[in-house]
Amino acid sequence: MIDPFTLSMVLIVALAIMGQSIGVSMLAGSFVYLLAKGLDPSIAAETMLQGLFNGYTLLAVPLFILAADIMNIGSLADRLLRFAQALVGRFKGGLGHVNVVSSVIFSGMSGSAVADAVGMGKIIITMMTKDGKYTPSYAAAITAATATVGPIIPPSIPMVLYALVSEQSVGYLFAAGILPGLFMALMMGVTNAVMARKRGFPTDNSIPLRELPKITWQAIPALMLPVILLGGIYGGVMTPTEAAAVAAAYALVISVVLYRSVSARAFYQALLGSARSTASVGILIAGAMAFNYVITRENVPDTVAAVLDGMNLSAVSFLIAVNVLFLILGCVLEAGALLLIVVPILIPAAQALGIDLVHFGVVLVVNAMLGLITPPYGLLLFIVASITKQPLVPIIKDLTPFILILIASLLFITFSPDFVLFVPRLLGYGG
Questions:
Q1: Which residues contact 66 (CB under 8 A, 6 or more apart)?
Q2: What is the secondary structure of 347-369 as a DSSP string?
Q3: Please, which residues have CB within 8 angstroms of residue 221's CB and are 6 or more apart in sequence?
Q4: Burial (CB count within 10 angstroms: exposed 0-12, middle 13-18, buried 19+), residue 47
């Protein structure tokens, strides 16, 4: 007779291969496990509902999704892009630098790599490919690469998911992502500069410096959103979940009242899109919670910790192994599934080795973001390919230098905990 846990795993993998969502696959696998064990199947529903109802932090996810969708339907993205263009467009490979800077700015608002690529990405790709300045494949590649910064610099939806399973502070996780995110952006800017000189990319039509104050003034309402969010969180005025609500409300007010760039139909479509995205994430979280009951009952986390302990791995060896594991799994699993399924298994081992869980969270989230741009199932690859109507092969070829520099950045982040934890410690973190 097949072991119930093995049967559950086989079913999950089979459903995923057949194209079923990983959330539904985990729910089905958990249900079959309970039946095979002779347990009440309602345990799956009870575990799922208790996790969702007690997960106050999870409310931040749909609110950040809504905030990002509202930003994408208004003129907010256009104003931010023009501000970035005024800052760095005058340099060699200027629109590539604009792509990097605009992603950094937008990341302080949306918390989602997909929102960055879909919203800001459409605009900047059109600008880059106009008049043949850049090849469509390069425009797509750098857009996908820079979008990975979105969930590293706060706010961050993946950080919220990691906080859910690791029981760490969302505020400290957000703070820990600031320097790594900026470092990744800097490295991509350097890579773009090298590529611009190598391939003869042009300098953008520079905006006169005398127009910078006017452009900055027009962009200030949008630029104030990250200031309000982070200031509110770290000033103790609001929780991250409340900050997500403020982000959505603020984006709506400045888009409708100040910029007057949102129609009733566009707002309805934004609500509809947010509901779909939230439902997709919700199914994934529900499935992960039900399946986490299964792996907890099977004592998988403690078993993994015991195996690793028997291997006498050092903290450094463990982090290297985790990076390799996540880079491989990231090629076939989406970021949310990685964080919700694999992290609970790794947490006991990380704690036993004395690894700081806030630093560990940043390492894992960066890994998960790399999975969005690595073939064969990198979600951002498909998004930018759809926008540019380009085949994946030339996009992946142009993306390779960025993937390599991001892996190098990951290694630096992995082995520089003091760098990652510098800002959290300034805010009172004791780790």
A1: 248, 270, 271, 274
A2: HHHHHHTT--HHHHHHHHHHHHH
A3: 254, 258, 259
A4: buried
Instruction: Give the 3-state DSSP-derived string for 115-175, with helices as H, strands as E and coil as C.
Output: HHHHHHHHHHHHHHHHHHCCCHHHHHHHHHHHHCCCCCCCCCHHHHHHHHHHCCCHHHHHH
| 398 phi/psi in degrees, rounded to 5 | -75, -25
What are the boundaries of each domain within the chain? 58-278+299-426
Residues 6+ apart with CB under 8 A from 117: 143, 144, 147, 380, 383, 384
pLDDT at 135 exceeding the cut of 80: yes
| Residue with the two structure tokens 């604009």 | 98
| Residue 48 binned pLDDT confidence (cut-offs 50, 70, 90) | low
Tokens (6 digits) for 367: 């890994």
Tens-place pLDDT, residues 269-282: 888 888 888 888 78
Task: Report how far apart the first and last C-alpha atoms of the chain are (Å, whole number).
Answer: 47
Q: Which residues of 298-328 are buried (b: 16+ CB within 10 A; e: fewer)?
A: bebbeebbeebeeeebeeeebbeebbeebbe
As given in the structure block, the two tokens for residue 138 are: 């390069």
pTM above 0.70, yes or no: yes
The token pair at 92 is: 């060699």
| Cβ density class 58-74: b for 16+ within 10 Å, e for less | bbbbbbbbbbbbbbbbb
Amino acid found at 321? A
* Residue 135 backbone zone (phi > 0: left; psi -120 to 50: alpha; other: beta): beta
Q: Report how far residue 87's alpha carbon sits from residue 251's, in angstroms, rounded to the nearest whole number.
A: 23
